[in-house]
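Section 5.1 Outputs to date
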Amino acid sequence: MVQNTEGHYYYAVGKRKNAVAVVRLYTDSGPIIVNGKPMEEVFPWDAWQQTVNEPFVASETVGQFRIVAKVKGGGIVAQAGALRHGIARAIQIAVPSLRAPLKKAGLLTRDAREKERKKYGLARARKAKQWTKR
């Protein structure tokens, strides 16, 4: 979460489940590039695209920034959530006055929910075999 030495971009990391997004936020307008491809190619569904664009809508900065991000790990929904978290953190660093609307929308808080581990003697984390009394 540090600005680079030339001042060209702002850097932040977003996480969700096992997905990690490394985000560079440039102050000029432009597209969102994820893993070298346009966002629409990586996240084809509208729901995923809305998730990624949520920080811009909450802070009313649609079209003001250009994003270049690398996302890895997790599934596609977790990757969209990690990218959203990273973009929100980068916007907060770039324009500190936008912290309040981002925080109110809950975009700066890392979603701590993780998959629960499987326990021995059970089919899954909590599912047990059917038990009969008689």
